[in-house]
Design brief:
Elements: H1 25-35, E1 39-44, E2 47-53, H2 54-63, H3 73-76, E3 83-85, H4 90-100, E4 104-108, E5 114-119, H5 120-125, H6 129-140, H7 143-146
Parallel strand pairs: 3-4
Antiparallel strand pairs: 1-2, 4-5
Helix pairs in contact: 4-6
Amino acid sequence: MANSIRKLKEVMTRNIRTVGPDASLKEVASKMDEQDTGAIPVCESDEVVGIITDRDIVLRVFSNNLDPATARARDVMTPSVVSLNEDQDVDEAAKIMQAKQIRRLIVLDSEGSLTGIVSLGDLAVSGQRERSADVLEKISQSPEKKGAA
């Protein structure tokens, strides 16, 4: 039986909280906690300029010897975000996640405004469990294992 959920707007997480590039890491972490998420888009003038994850905070603060009390979102965010339109197909999102080895995609409306985020978890809940498991396996492979048979 074919899956009836085909478009990102049907599976994405909506009402996403955002932060600006100059937000403190405390503010970022508080918003993550409030929304029970591990990722927050970073926006400037209604444009997504990056994404920051809980992992980004931990790894980049400590590996770059940053002071968590003074570091800002821009200091630890990933500036290159991958986005899709909310009317694009769920399978296309899964293929892009797999190819780019990412766990989340920014979802934009037809005017290019942030409308949500789609994650591997969203794909799994949407009935795409097998597909999301395959994507997760490919994303999680270390560089040494990728070429192995």
